[in-house]
Design brief:
- About 35% of the residues lie in helices and about 20% in strands.
- The protein is an alpha/beta fold.
- It has one domain: Flavin prenyltransferase-like (Rossmann fold).
- Strands 1, 2, 3, 4, 5, 6 and 7 form a seven-stranded mixed beta sheet that branches.
- α1 packs parallel to α3 (about 50-65) and α5 packs across α7.
């Protein structure tokens, strides 16, 4: 991944952000040039899983860059061709809905729109409690869209949360490599 320009867009699945930070650290250690992007929610919300100021600080320490967290900040991604690939991890149900319906009113959604504008790959790592419910329609629409690739995902707790699914974040690097070659790794839904 050395020299690869990767955007990492983080949305508000707060319980999974630490897992994503580990992947970002690993890719940075391999020499990837990472641009962090935060949704409004991830950028401004303190939760029991962590403070937003700490998330900003961790991302800046790992990447050497301040996270982009405004519409104005992410808009140049497309016109200036800033990224080789954009990863949305974690990608919440709300973000899936925005992407599937062409709504670009958050930094993450606009970053995706900007990336797709130049026909460059977007990798989505799902993390939503309603993947097998309301969000499945959006996952299906995006799965058929050009230049969008999914990190394989699975049910994370089929007994207590039967509609919930989460991407296997350890497969993000493999999915990035395949996406750059225009391929979706399979199987998409894993056990």
């Amino acid at each position: 991944m050395k020299g690869l320009r990767i955007g990492f867009a983080i949305s508000g699945s707060f319980c999974t952000i630490d897992g994503v930070l580990s992947v970002i650290q690993s890719l940075a250690d391999e020499g990837a040039d990472i641009t962090p992007i935060l949704s409004f929610s991830a950028s401004t919300t303190d939760t029991r899983f962590g403070r937003c100021a700490d998330l900003h600080a961790k991302l800046e320490k790992i990447t050497g860059k301040k996270p982009l967290d405004t519409l104005v900040g992410v808009e140049p991604i497309g016109p200036q061709g800033l990224l080789d690939v954009l990863v949305v991890a974690p990608c919440t149900g709300s973000t899936l809905g925005r992407l599937a319906n062409g709504i670009s009113d958050t930094p993450v959604a606009l970053a995706v729109k900007a990336q797709l504008r130049c026909c460059r790959p977007v990798v989505i790592a799902v993390s939503t409690n309603d993947a097998l419910g309301a969000s499945m329609r959006n996952i299906s629409l995006l799965n058929n869209a050009k230049n969008i690739y999914f990190v394989p995902f699975k049910q994370d707790n089929p007994i207590s949360k039967p509609n919930s699914m989460i991407a296997d974040f350890s497969m993000i690097p493999e999915t990035i490599s395949a996406a750059i070659e225009g391929k979706q790794i399979q199987p998409l839904i894993i056990s």
